[in-house]
Structures are given as structure tokens and as C-alpha cells.
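This week, study the protein below.
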Amino acid sequence: MRWLAMTFLAVLAGAAPAAHAQTAPGMKWSPYIDFEAKPGNKRDIGEANVFVPLAQTDRTLFFGDLRGRFDGNSNREGNFGLGVRHMLANGWNIGGYGYFDRRRTETGNFFNQTTLGAEALGPDWDLRANFYLPNGSRTRDLGTTGGGAPTAAISGNTVQITTPGLITREERALKGYDAEVGWRAPLFDAQDKRQLRLFLGGYHFSDAGIRVSGPRLRAEFVTAEVPGLWKGARLALGAELQHDHARGRQAFVSLRLRIPFGGGSGERAGALNAQERRMTEPVMRDVDIVTQSRVSGSTAPLVETASLTGAGQSFSLISSANTTGAALPGAVAAAGPNSLVVLSGTFNTSAITTLQTGQTLMGAGSVTVRAPSGATATLVTPGATITGAVAGNNPAVFMGDNSTLTGMTVSNLSTGGGTPNPFAVRATGVTGAVVSNNTLTGLENLVGGTAQGLLISSSSNITVSGNTMTGTGTGIAVGLNVVNSTGILVTGNTMSATGSSAGNSRAIVINNGSFAAGSTGNTILTGICSVAAAGTGSIGLTGGGTCP
């Protein structure tokens, strides 16, 4: 605080001639500087205080008081004051004072304040009161917090995008007052240069709904004669405790040392009686312009229903909490071609769910969704299950051109008579479909049927990746069956089959199937690679093998 340093030095420079002027015969009081160290439980404070008599008579003193203060939390404050004290014949000293205060808080904000106070200092009792009035701008902006990225979550049959609200905070200087009553403990004679005083007081500061108020206790031991130091030196030891809800409990201990200015001041100080010595008591007042932060404005979080993906694709959520398995095929169809449908929950159904052209049916995964306001967020979906019991030679899910099935658990159990062939998923006569990261299981419990995890027939350019495909039955069981299809990319899948015999446990069946380059990283857990008629390419297996 350059302004404080310059003012402080100017007063120090002016103190010397003032001190010299007060050494004239009959002048009682000389200037001094006090240094105080005040460590505490929440912060440590250091202070320098220059006290300069400006004019005096035998019983009245006009003085100037300049203080500079700092603490370990980067607060800085300066106080410039003028005051008057008068000695009454009954042993009391009465006085009043006013200060201009300027503080830089730990947030880097500056505040100004006027302090007005009155005091009555008696032989055994002290009374003090101060009033604090901030002037100029009382508030400083502390910025806006909150906000952040929108989030997306499933809520019933919709996806809600929540854009966090904003909170604007400000730092505000508070007006208020404090007061205290002091009592001299009768450990020493009233004229002794050593005294112990106890103080009980309180404070209250408030503005704009902020309140800082509480009790304050102080104890101070003062000796006006310090062995080994210069005459006129004064040493004060203190302890202080205060508490309020805004700042909590604050405790301090203090050490304050006085260094007198001016030749002969020590001799004069030594000759003063107790009442005269108290004319140069430090003015007791709050150490800070009291400030507090508060919320000055806020915006509520914005909650919207997502209807599009980040890329502008039509988007909908179907939850088993609101949609039955029987209604699932109709709900998926209603979403329309080229839409994204996210499933949540478990759907038990005996009907076929057919994907339309360009449609995506997703269980577990993530997708960017968009709100009407334009806010986007990533929705992480937990997954969904379709448990099919579809009669005849039918799948639980039928793929469409350029459709995608991802993150789903799909099973289909044969229920009809004869020799039904249940498929979990079937792609027949389609092109450009994607089946990825699913668990697909075909189950058959009637002798002679064929249970298949995934059947691809008469199709082209199909991608099959990251799936677990299983066939289990009392007849033939197939994990993946590729028939009369071309350009099939098969990568990173796990296939298994458990049929009526080793020959009927066919993890992979190829009947005139052609495979795209990059069909690698697949695993057969149980079952064989069965080839009725090879096409071109092969399915690469972990461990170095291929099928065929």
C-alpha cells in the first residue's frame, strides 16, 4: 500500500519537530510509536501506531494518530485519526476521536470508512464506544461461480439436460458499532506503573442481510516502566477472545512495545501520575473495516428435455417403467427412420422389434444430446435387455438397412411347436447394418430346432464387432451364422455354442459368406467353426487361427 507507506513516513518525519516542540517546560505529553505483534488462531496481525500530540494544555490534549496494519491473510489497513482528551478533576479522562480508514482485503478489494468514538477512562473503570460508517462504494464484485458443463440424465421416459445455475458474489463493507467496559484488577496500587485490566464488550456489524455480532473479552497487563529499556518505554501484554457466527471463534495474544520520541520525554513520562499517563493510552477500536461476502444474484438451473442428438438426429427414450414389452415394437417404429432410440430397463416380449432404415437402438453407451436451448451434454446410458419369446423361425430384433444395434442384451427362447429356429438378432436382405457391443443369445428347448445368436443372410456390408454371441439348444446351436452374404466385417467378438453334440455345437457357421479385411481378434469359447461353403476372406481368431 504505497499511499500508506508514504503517509506513515510523512508522519514520522513530522513527529520529530512535534516532539521537540513538546519538550518545552510545562508540556506533559510527547509523541511515541507503538509496535504490536498479535498472533491468533486464525490470523496473525502486525501493527505500527504513531501517536503525535498536536496541542496541549495542562489538562487537555489534542492528538493525531496514524496506524498501519497487516496480517498473514494479505489484508492491509491504514487509519488516520484526530482526537482530544481532557482530564476531569474527579480522576476521569474523557475523550473523542475520528478516523479515516482504508483497507485492502485479502481479495484485493479496497474499502474506505469513517470511525467515530468516545471514551471515559477512570481510575478503576473504562468505558468505550465506537461507530463505523463505510463511505464510498460499499461493495466489490467477487465474480460469478457455478455454471459449468450441462449434464444429462434419464428421468422416466425422457432425458433431462440440466444446465447449472450461476451464483454472483460480492464483498461488502458493513456499518456497525462496538463497546466495552473495563475494570482495573486491584492487584496493584492505583498509582502503580503496573496495572492489569479486564474488559467485557461486544460488537455488531450489518448490512444487506449480513450480520456479524458477538461478545468480546480482553485482558491487558501494562507496565510503564520496563527494566533494561529507555525511560518512557511502555510494554503491554494482552489476550483477546471474540466469537460470531460469520467468522467463528477468534483468539489472540498480543505484545505491544512503546518507543517515545523527543529528548527528555522519558524524564517527563516518569514524573506523570496515573491519570496523566492514561492521556496517551492507545485508542481502542476494531482492527478492521469489517467486510463479508454474500450472494448478490443467482440464476436457477435450467432443466430441459432433450429431443435431438448433438448431430441433430431425432432422439427418444423408451423405458420399461413406462412401456411394456408388448408395446416396445410399436414405440420403436413410432420413433421413425434415422432416429436414435435409447432403451432403459428390461422388456419381456413375444413380438419382433424391427429397426427402420438408419435407425439406432442403443442400450449401454454414451451419446451427445441437445436441448431446445442449444445446450448439449453427454448421456451415459446404463443398458437395456430384450427378453424375447417369439414363436416360429423369428428373431427378437430384426435389423434394417443402415441400422445399428448397440449396447443391448438380447435373448430369444423358442416357444412354438414343430422345429422352431429362434434367433436373438437377424439381418436378412439388408445392407450397411452395424451390430456392436451386444450380448446376443438364442435359446431352443425343442428337439430338432436351431438356436442362433446372430443370423446374417442375403446381406452386404454388415459390421459385427465387440459382441458376445451364444447359441444354446437341444438340437443345433450357433453363435454366428453367415449365409449368402458379402463384405461382412467381424472383429473382436466372442462366440460359443452348446448343442446336442459336438458337431451340433457350432460357434461359427459359414455358408457362402465373404468377409472384409480386418475381420480379426475374435474368440471361440465353445463349439466349432462349421463351413458349408466358403466364400472369400476369413474370420481371424485369437491365437492365430481362422475360420475357415
Helices lie at 2-22, 265-271, 274-277, 328-335.
